[in-house]
Hints:
Distance between the termini: 40 Å
Mean pLDDT: 97
Helix content: under 10%
Largest sheet: 6 strands, mixed
Number of strands: 10
Low-confidence stretches: none
Shape: globular
Number of helices: 0
Radius of gyration: 13 Å
Amino acid sequence: EEKLLESGGGLVQPGESLRLSCLTSGFEFNWAWMSWVRQAPGKELEWVSTISSSASTTHYADSVKGRFSISRDNPNKTLYLQLNSLKPEDTGTYYCVNAPRSRALTAPRGQGTQVTVSS
């Protein structure tokens, strides 16, 4: 059974940083393209970032490019998202998914981790 366990969210002020983690199990993480998606209150699910299985390729939504950084630890089957220079519009629930960008919005999600950016 595929499991995705996100953590690392919290309440921060604008300009601050967070590092999200996603501990995975139940599938071949080393071979999987992984993505982060997020959902703001009252809004649709939004793709954030994708990383290839070897971490050689990364993609970012324009809204987070230059501020967020996706990475992975294959031996420990963990996905990360470094969030820098956070803005109030980054507020939402963040989910990791076992999917490339093309399928990220429809892939099964875990419980997510809440990020709130507010002064």
